[in-house]
Amino acid sequence: MSSCETCVVRNRAICAGLDNQEILALNALGRRRSVSAGEPLIWEDDDSLLVANVIEGVLKLTSSTEDGREQIVGVAYPSDFIGRPFGQTSKASVVALTDARVCVFSRNDFDRFARSHPELEHKLLERTLAELDRTRSWMMLLGRKTAPEKIATFLLEMSDRLAESGHTPITRGPATRFTLPFSRQQVADVLGLTIETVSRQFTKLKNEGVIDLPARRDVEILDRPALLALAG
Amino acid sequence: MSSCETCVVRNRAICAGLDNQEILALNALGRRRSVSAGEPLIWEDDDSLLVANVIEGVLKLTSSTEDGREQIVGVAYPSDFIGRPFGQTSKASVVALTDARVCVFSRNDFDRFARSHPELEHKLLERTLAELDRTRSWMMLLGRKTAPEKIATFLLEMSDRLAESGHTPITRGPATRFTLPFSRQQVADVLGLTIETVSRQFTKLKNEGVIDLPARRDVEILDRPALLALAG
DNA sequence: CGTACGATTGAAGTTAGTCAACGCAGGTGG
DNA sequence: CCACCTGCGTTGACTAACTTCAATCGTACG
């Protein structure tokens, strides 16, 4: 059986800061679960009976209109927390983008545990505040940036996030070459664009020598300053 | 001197749940401040040395590009919490939309107090999670909704929020008639549109008999079901 | 080798943005 | 008291950006 002691995100997730006894108690509440790419973990508007920590892989949080338009409202990487504790039903679906492993808890169990462990709640609060900051800067992008600016900002963010979570060779700083965990459609859903616009902007950047696209989902940043300038 | 005991948001803000002694301690750290309409409380990228509770009035949180495009990324109503505790600098400016009264704390003082009062941190966490939910549904609007849908959604949200915070006669449920705390430009900045588009959509709804516009900033919802249908 | 799916490219269409003129109400001063 | 000014909002004509629709490409996979 898998346990918290050997968990790779042990020191980065909200569990960091709990002592061994507390970890043991939390361990008893949760269980590991694998989610394959494309598989949902939580459905929009369902009673969201679970919360989870991401151990490995990348997942998308999406919100949809009745007529099927989709917006990706968040992306969860290893050590990120997923779900909506404390009595509210989450209004976003969670679907794995890559094969992923998560550590799931029933929301009730987690709520109870969290309320009696302030250190855990504090970690969760810090994480939620940081996520809110990121989400707000994404609002700026969605509301006010042009397609080229959106693409440039997106590539820079991916280069940062993927470096952090160790998807690339162990280097410090942003990754210059990485594999997107998104299809073109999903990039479009993150940026509030269509797949065609995304494709055209990618090709344009490639033709201008700012990036290279060695494979469908691979990106190499050739001219980071140019990207920064384009990002607005 | 003003004190927490007589505070109108005492039971709705994050201070709710603190006992009298704790309230007294918190009271000693904070001070009341008036902010007139248009006056800033926090500047984007400043070191954000303060956090605050809104007592009265409405404030906007904004994010701007270098070339001056602005996006309103949040709106704070009475009992809402403002600012970025725990060591990060806020990336949003806060400016009063109406004359407002807030209860401000130095961030350091607040951080220290919060860390030793789990009940307060819990309230703040619940509030932050709720705000994140709202922000995410706004991402959907910004990324995927059309101008008419944006306007309809906006009017419905205003009708809910303004009813809650008691800007309208004491009624239960959403307000049908209310005064917007926003200019046309600010509505545009919330929705990621231009002032002209906002104006045109407003007049269109008026001509269709869905709303009435008795004065510049006043709205009366005549046909709520129609608005709901338009909101997408 | 052929199929299927995602990605790209092209041409045409729409939506919202831009630029510019005008309207209206509130405030100010003659 | 009225004329004028000023700031915000509205309206119109035009434009640009992005979407839509449709065809084609390319690669992974059976």
UniProtKB/TrEMBL annotation, chains A, B:
Keywords, comma-separated and alphabetical: DNA-binding, Transcription, Transcription regulation
Annotated protein name in UniProt: Crp/Fnr family transcriptional regulator FnrL
One Pfam family per UniProt: cNMP_binding
Entry-linked PANTHER family: CRP FAMILY TRANSCRIPTIONAL REGULATORY PROTEIN, FUMARATE AND NITRATE REDUCTION REGULATORY PROTEIN
InterPro entries noted in UniProt: cNMP-bd_dom, cNMP-bd_dom_sf, Env_Response_Regulators, HTH_CRP, RmlC-like_jellyroll, WH-like_DNA-bd_sf, WH_DNA-bd_sf
Cyclic nucleotide-binding domain sequence ranges: 14-131
Species whose genome carries this gene: Novosphingobium pituita
Domain annotation HTH crp-type: ranges: 145-225
Top-level taxon of origin: Bacteria
